[in-house]
Structure formats: C-alpha cells, structure tokens
Amino acid sequence: MTIGIDKMGFYTPHYVLDMTDLANARGDDPAKYHIGIGQSEMAVVPPTQDVVTMAANATEQILDATDRDQIDLILFATESGIDNSKAGAVYLQHLLKLSEHSRAIEIKQACYSATAALQLGKDYLKAHPGKRVLVIAADIARYGLETAGEITQGGGAVAMIMSENPRILAISDESTYLTRDVMDFWRPVYATEARVDGHYSANVYTDFFTDVWTRFSDTYHHEISDFDAMLFHLPFSKMGLKALRTVLPEDQTVADKLTSQFDQARLWNRHVGNLYTGSLYLSLLSLLAHGDLHAGSQLGLFSYGSGAEGEFFTGTIQADYQEGFDKAAIQTLLDKRTPVSVAEYERIFKDSLPTNGQDRALDISHDSAKYVLGGIKNEQRQYLVQ
C-alpha cells in the first residue's frame, strides 16, 4: 500500500518586513541577513491571526467534498498552542466544519512534531484503508525585539492531506531518528518568547543530522547520490545549506545537482522566515514548485526539533505531484503582502491579547483572510469567518 501526502496548502499573514530595513534599523550590514543567515523577508503576524486561523486558511486552499467525507483524524503540530488543555485541532475541526466523528489531537515537540504527525498518519492509514488524515504544521516564531534571535522570526501554516495512492509524495517506511534531552531551545509556560542558545543549537542540529543520516545510510544501504534532492528543517535557510555541505560527494555533478535543488527548496522560506514545525514542509512545497523533479524522484528529508529530536526519512515523487498544490495561489499570497516599516513591525509585535482574562475586540478590517481572530471574550477566543 502506497501512503503519503496527497495535497498541500500554505498560508502566511498579509504583512511582511524586508530584512534590509531590519538590518539598517539594528545597525547591521544587510549582508549578514541576506547571506549570513539566508533570509530576504520575514512574515509579520498581526493579532488577528494565530495558529488556528492560519491553519484554517492553509487548509481551505485544498479542502474539497471528498476530504470532508473521508478525514477522520486531525493532527495539529505546533509549539505555539493557544491553550494548555484544548487542542488547536478541535478549534480547527469546528471552523472547517469537518466531521464530529473524528479524532482531533495537538502534537508538540518543537519543530519536529509535524514529522511525528506524518508518521502517525501513515500508520493510521495503513490500519484504516479509504480514510484521510489532515496534518497541520502551524507556528509563530517569536524571540523578542532586538534579540539575537529576532532575525529568525516568522510565521505561517502548512496543511497536508494524507491518503493512499497520494498525488504528491509516497513516504517510505525507511527512517532513522534520535532523541536527547538537550537545552538548546525552550519556551517556559510563562513566556511568550523562546529561549535559545543559537550557536549551541546550530551545532546540535548538525550533530543530529550526522547521526540520523549515517545510521540511515548504514541501515538501508543508501548513498547521497541515490537522492535527487535533500530537504532540511530551515529555521533560517543557511542552516540547511551548512548541513547539506557536510555530505556533498566529491562527484561534482551530484554535488551541483543537490545544491541547485536545495536553492529551489529554500526559495519560499527566504521570504517567510522561520515556521518552526512548518519549515521543512514549506521547503518541500518550494521544491515542488521550483525544483527539477519528475515521477520517481527520490527525496531525503531531515526533520529537527530542538530539545531535541531528529529524523531522516525518504519519499518518492508521484506522477501527478503538480496537481496536489496550487503554486500560483501561494506565489500570489506572497507577492500581495503589505510591506511594513520596522516601526510598524515593532508595534504589531507588541500588540497581543490580554493574559489577565480581560475581554478585547480586535479590528479585523485590515485582515482580508477568510478565517480571522476577532478577539477574546469571557476568556474564549472569538474566531470569525469573513
């Protein structure tokens, strides 16, 4: 039985910050941002969007009547949850009017959890032929203004519908994974911004990749030349390139191909920023849209979540992969975003819902998305459909 990703959708909010403007405001050389970390633009998330609304907007792009009838498992991967008890998947199920006779679960392990959701979804479909699974990777990356991590912020959601005989990517059973208790990144329950040791985390990332790739190669007898592209979790796009360079072969033709494919895979990430759980899968979308692929192309995927957990797994591109996502809609979404100044970005960053139980209504007139957050009332988020 072939199981994998049948359709993919993407959403990011309508505000964007040019990294050159941020560099100038912070007294840095813009090359540090554009070349040093490999980022051109950063998504700016207004209060009218959270992980639930972004997930709904991403899913709306791909949802049809067949999906509504067959989806009976919703797996919501995020480290930006809105409630310590109730799963974001439950809010999403209600907003999208999906079947009440479904399981709706939230999964957390930093940036890795979407991959855990994919693997759980694959196993579920093996046991439940004819069903579909909705996997969401939605996050808002926040490190604080004028912090070392500020330039690796961003936000958005990737929605994936899994099925038998998928149109996009068949996921192999071959994978290797690693978990260690590492304090390279965390966010205490009382904090809205993450704590991170950037240099340490980058080293852990590379160490995890080396471990899972080496064990994958030894266990399943694969060489780097067996792959048409290698995809990486991209908290910033330069990090994945550094990891790729550690395994590039001496064969220049293969090395050039993998490097070129990587550049196409990070193209959309460069213009959105860090998506946490969604970063690897936005990279996959970007490769599908811009890469040199064909039916049977072999992809290697490295997923990493600080704290820390990593996995290397593989997938095979299917013949109708271009029918599983809307390249034009995603590009239009990115192109039509409203640029904001650094001052506007800072104002939006500081504007958040009350944490003391007070009511607040939000002005949604500037947010053109279908699903928006209208505020909070009686300590309950007010989701609206426009």
Automatic annotation (TrEMBL):
Superkingdom of this protein's organism: Bacteria
Residue ranges annotated for the Hydroxymethylglutaryl-coenzyme A synthase N-terminal domain, each copy included: 3-163
Residues binding (3S)-3-hydroxy-3-methylglutaryl-CoA, per UniProt: 29, 143, 242, 274
Span of domain Hydroxymethylglutaryl-coenzyme A synthase C-terminal: 258-350
Entry keyword Lipoprotein: no
A GO molecular function held by the record: hydroxymethylglutaryl-CoA synthase activity
Active site: 79 (proton donor/acceptor), 111 (acyl-thioester intermediate), 233 (proton donor/acceptor)
Keyword set includes Transferase: yes
A Pfam family hit: HMG_CoA_synt_N
Keyword tags: Transferase
Gene Ontology process terms (BP): acetyl-CoA metabolic process
Family statement: Belongs to the thiolase-like superfamily. HMG-CoA synthase family.
Protein's name according to its UniProt entry: 3-hydroxy-3-methylglutaryl-CoA synthase
Species the sequence originates in: Furfurilactobacillus siliginis
Protein's gene: mvaS
